[in-house]
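Predicting holo structure, phosphoenolpyruvate bound.
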Amino acid sequence: MQYCCCRGLWNTDNNMRKLLIAANWKMYKTPNESTAFLTSFFPLVKQSTQAEILLCPAMTSLPALVDAARSRSVFVGAQNMHWKNEGAFTGETSPVMLTALGVTHVLIGHSERRQYFAETDTTVNLKLKAALAHSLIPIVCVGEKLEEREANLTNNVLELQVSIALERIDPAIAAPIVFAYEPVWAIGTGRTATPEIAQEAHKIIRNQIAQSLTPALAASTRILYGGSVKPDNAKSLCCLEDIDGALVGGASLEPKSFAEIVHNAIAGQS
Ligand code: PEP
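Done. Tokens:
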């Protein structure tokens, strides 16, 4: 199969999958730095209406950024949340607290949460259910580790992660779910999945969504690619049949570089 910018010819279903370009700022930027980013960034992308743009800052920047983004067509999401509405969970943030701030999206099960904070597929499933119950758009992160890829386990890992995430989710309320394929070996390493690897993994995820939910939901669910996305590879990734946007870490911290990713991703889809 050839990988080129002909996505529209491959898949007519993808008309309903609007490009989504999301920034994961991890533990970077104070509230002032976050709003200063938006001031510089927004003029660079305000004509880019072909894509939805999402900024996921640290928890402490959410109030200021939600406020600053109100008059601009940029969404603001959290990088994590607990699944309970309230309780004795020191240091945690609940879905109720996020929606009260005006946050619209939440990342769930990022590999750094799985690696450093013991998150599991089971907690991902609990968080996904909570996000849907509170009308937060969940972005569920899945992806294999290097040793799993090298042991030819990528398919099994992705199918298991997606199927457990979607366990006992009612298809009737599943439309807002977004997935992000983030191969762990590509996050923050400067090593990007080739278009072939990324397309193949996205296809596996989409097939599993069809099995766990419905074929119609599989066709309409957005699956983002994440893992060292940069201005110079955004186009070749976002032109692929099953890639509906990007989740960007390091290269989203600079307004110019993140704006270039938005522009190049849009160019990949046209
Ligand atoms: C991420 O944090 O989700 C990510 C993909 O990071 P980076 O773009 O830096 O690899």
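The radius of gyration is 17 Å.
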